[in-house]
Amino acid sequence: MTGAAARGDRALAELPSGTVTFLFTDIEGSTRLWEEHPEAMRDALARHDELVREAIEGAGGHVVKTTGDGCMAAFSTADAGVSAAIAAQRALENATWGEAGRLRVRMGLHTGVASLRDGDYFGSSLNRAARLMGVAHGGQVVCSQATTDLARDVLAEGVGFVDLGEHRLRDLSRAERVFQVNATGLGSEFAALTSIDAFPGNLPLQMSSFIGREREIERTVEALGDARVVTLTGVGGVGKTRLALQIAAEVLPRFREGAWLVELAPVRDPDDVVGAFAAVFGLTARAGQSLEETLAEFLLTKQLLLVVDNCEHVLDAVADLVEELTVTCPRVVVLATSREGLALDGERIFAVPALAAPETGADLGAVGASDAVQLFVERACAADADFVLDAANAAAVGQVCRRLDGVPLAIELAAARVTSMSPAELASALDHRFDLLAGGRRRAVKRQQTLRATIDWSYDLLDESQQRLVARLAVFAGGCTREAAEVVCAGGPIEPRAVLGLLTDLVARSVVVAERGGIETRYRLLETIREYGEERLAEHDEIDPLRDRHAGYFTDFALRCGDGLWGPEQIAWGDRMNADGENILAAFAHAVDTDDLDLAVRLLEATSLIPIQTGYVLTLPVEPVLAVPGVEQHPGYPVVLMAAAFAADRRGEATRAREHGDAALDAERASTGSHPYAVDLEALRSSLAGFIAMSMGAWDESAAAFLEAADRNRRAQNLASAGQSLCSAASALCYGGRFAAAVPVATEGLALARAGGSPPWINVGLVALAQALSATEPERARVLLAEAVHQDRNYDSYSESTQMTVTAAMLEDWSLTAELAARSIPLLHWMSHRPYLHGILTVSARALAGTDPEAAATIQGGAHMLLKTAAPTMVVGEQPAAPAPGARASGSGVFVETRRETTRLLTETLGDDRLRALRDQGAAMDTDAAVAYTLARLDAFLANATA
User: Global pTM?
Assistant: First the structure.
């Protein structure tokens, strides 16, 4: 670590927390200076940064980050912040600046509570300090009332505060009493603060602070500099109005005559739109003029911003008027909010997204830093002053925000319930969200008093076909493609050829979300709208027919994917299957609920008998199918039993896996006719036996079973399956120390894989051959493994990531082992594959032993915990066969040897007592904690390795 990096780490560790004083600075007129003196400004800015940093650090403060041509600093006391600002202004005043001239810097200070995470602060206190700085002038230092009260009595003699009165800052919330710092060497006479009160307009006071949306504000502010009409679109309740008002406050200094809000929600008749605009300015029609002509004449010379809110229900009338005003009034700019754009030439449209919610399992810091949670917490505190986000309720608050899709209105309505419900109770009650969130904000407009009313407003603006499609789209889980929508949703008032046009209309109206990041565009309803759509679907008595159609489509789709997973486009088909995993699960659940064994068996055939899938493996619960009445008489019963066998194998239940596999063959032999399913149960049973034996460390038995499966697949011309079986056999031979025997088997497996062209199968062959050559040709093995690693970056497979990790350990490449383990562990954890997870934690401990011995010892304890809790007959590497004469330990044997070597290294480094204590700490963890800890230490190791 460099000296600068070490100092940076120490500075982050020392950042104040709790109640903090923030200082924001900015160079006045910097844009003009950069344009006029670009070379001189580089030197001047460097000098500025040096002087300001010296003043801040000299007062005991910390520069947290730079912000444009200024900085943000934090202080543990208010007087330290004020002292730093004074010192910085004096240094700037006395410096020599050259061609660029003296840099005039404005500064603002505010003291309040803020959250600290990963070296950065979050909370409204930061926004307050930034807003204060924004209303000041170059050379001026201004403070909030909170900072002034704390600093007034402890500052040096000669420092004073001048009360500048109350001002509305650009966050539009309560007025702030602002004070100017006066001290020797600082200017004392400045123009009036550039607060909202300094400009004409009618922007309304907001009773709560504005949270998040930095990116949206930045993009829209920039667009308003280029376009005359900018429209914010989005679903009801997503916060378009609040965002538009905040943007208006941000750009207010650009407009001599200020910013004016035109609220159209109360307008019902399109003919009244002009009157709503005119009423804002108190205009009535002049003699001989229409009201529209009078309005245009009044605005002709004005330089102002019109914020036109809620246009969707009178869209055509608004578009006509805005087009006329922008043509006749050259300095009028329009910022509109609507469910869809105005469709005007030159209009810029920005879709307002929901607020970001924390991921499942995020820690307290990550939960508290998300915009959605910050909104929940602020509104909850407004309802209950004693509410605190803490470790006990953070997960529930995060869940509430996720389930409400990050929609601000829904979050605010939920947060108001904390007076009567805990966050955990709120999360549970969201299954009935329209009842839960039926309370209102009495001062809100009627359509925003409840969640249902907000969605009713959007739904009522749609025509019959659009409404029916919204209802039918509710049958999909996790969205759908255009093809799926056309097959499942067509009928009645919706023609198949009209579905795409209707989807396009609904996206434009912000009712449907279009996600364009994958292979195909996916169309999705927010969860709240999906629940609303289900209610409408019930009103049309279409729930059962739509679910039947949905299940039939996704059964056919899963079978197509299953076929594709054996060919050269395996990755693409795997991506398609994973993208619609929730729909396949929903189809399977419907098949089981309705005792539709034909569909259930087809889905198991398509998803549960594939040896390798890309991404997180889609697993269907087989046990419910075994409980369906009549399953034993169904032709697909052998397939169900084999799927149950592979499911038991993945869970590490060897005895049950073997029993189900044998029963599948018995059921097939007892059947009176051939089953209509494209599966070779004999070959699958051999592969299953190979996997079971491999998990138990019975390497010869495993290799023999896989070779038998390969032979059966060759005879049936299933060459892809034959290649996969050969590669698995080669790995088993390597694990048993029989490297020479493994080489020709792996070579043939790789050749078959290359002939088939499927990247994952090729990857299986590369890894198998690398393992086989690791003992005798390690350099060639490294080349093969490198090719596999490079190829594997295009997809995730728990089995291949694990095999590559083992191979890297066999080659004693601990950096690569750590990198691959960090990819393998989450996949194994997702699959609950505890035996292999134990092995990968074991090699992870060895990878860290040299640089992070305490972490390595703790991870050893976690691995031992997994060993104790795994099924007793399914412990990888605990019963290794004796290596062949002259062969070194390998494969699962490498886990045993690696654990011994790691223990030897850690004993030398830590001593027996410390090693034992750390192992005990790791062994006390549960699986989730052990996985999280290991991944964190691997990430740190890899970050240091690349620094």
Answer: 0.67
